[in-house]
């Protein structure tokens, strides 16, 4: 019996009768993190890290949720299951599953760079590794986080000096808080869309340090916050919500900003290359660190990356899933 199998409902562990990030309703589910493509409503019972629990409840409501700390092992049926840092967003985890001495790891989404708000990625030795490859092309190579933070602050400071708002699009869970943690509050006020501010409140209650922010409400007098940094979900850019901030310069923060064509389609003045996913080098380093001989890749440049891994000597395959890099775009 395989430790994990791939079904129409999601990645399944027969020995434990449990699924990892299922995309259809099941009785029991292990959830790697709170993004909408991995944490879906309708499961009978959920298992996640203690750090992920507040966001899961914020997004999914009252659910039957069991929690474990990072590295804590629980026995479920005939399997030993533990959750380990993935570095993707606060609370995100890789799922280690051991059955009969054989170890498989489901990475979920992950990155190797330290972002200041998430527990850093932890390499896990295993026989089989299931890896995302959202940015599985050599063109994707991230600059050091401190360089990107300095670039964002310079852009904001220049806009503020000329009396412009700085409107930046970023996903509401993870990316937005990562940007907030990198901002220099001395430049001016920081405003947040309600979808982002709701997540900020959850994370502050967990002890994650974020600068002071003001939620944008209908009665906010924009003249009272000149030169403010305005953080919004991607869907709010170009909307009537954003139109009240004039004059303004717009930006979008995403790994996809490394591609010129995507920057044009976003119609933003600036594109900051910042991702919560591993780049080409990060993917290869993470996989090598596992010591796995078999690797399955999912969501992203799967055919290209699988071929690359096979050329490196891995037993490599592709797993079709319903996970997606831009699921948060609908916030």
Mind sketching the topology for me?
Elements (H helix, E strand, L loop, with lengths): L4 E2 L4 E3 L4 E3 L7 E3 L14 E5 L3 H8 L4 E4 L4 E4 L2 E7 L7 E7 L2 E5 L21 E6 L11 H17 L3 E5 L5 H8 L7 E3 L1 H12 L8 E2 L13 E4 L7 H4 L4 E6 L6 H7 L3 E3 L7 H11 L3 E7 L1 H10 L3 E4 L13
Parallel strand pairs: 3-4, 4-5, 5-6, 10-11, 11-18, 12-15, 12-16, 13-14, 13-15, 16-17, 18-19
Antiparallel strand pairs: 1-2, 2-3, 7-8, 8-9, 9-10
Structure in words:
Helix content is 23%, strand content 25%. It has 331 residues and is of the alpha/beta class. It has 2 domains: 5-140 and 276-330, 4-Layer Sandwich (Metallo-beta-lactamase, Chain A), CATH 3.60.15; 145-272, Metallo-hydrolase/oxidoreductase (Rossmann fold). The strands form 3 sheets. It has a 7-stranded mixed sheet, with helices on one face. Strands 1-2-3-4-5-6 form a 6-stranded mixed sheet, with no helix packed on it. The protein has a 6-stranded parallel sheet with strand order 14-13-15-12-16-17. It is globular. Mean pLDDT is 94; it is low at 327-331.
Short précis:
This protein has 331 residues and is of the alpha/beta class. It has 8 helices and 19 strands.
Alpha-carbon Rg, integer? 20 Å
Shape: globular
CATH T-level fold name of the largest domain? Metallo-beta-lactamase, Chain A
Poorly predicted segments: 327-331
* Main pleated-sheet profile: 7 strands, mixed
SS element count, helices = 8
CATH architecture of the largest domain, by name, is 4-Layer Sandwich
The average pLDDT value, as a whole number, equals 94
Question: What's the count of strands?
Answer: 19
- Calculate the terminal CA-CA distance, rounded to whole Å: 40 Å
CATH superfamily descriptor of the largest domain: Ribonuclease Z/Hydroxyacylglutathione hydrolase-like
Order of helices and strands: EEEEEHEEEEEEHEHEHEEHEHEHEHE
Instruction: Determine and state the CATH class of the largest domain.
Output: Alpha Beta
- Describe the strand arrangement of the main beta sheet, using strand numbers: 7-8-9-10-11-18-19
Supply the number of structural domains.
2
Q: SS-based structural class? A: alpha/beta
Share of helix among residues?
Answer: 10-25%
Query: Into which percentage range does the β-strand content fall?
Result: 25-35%
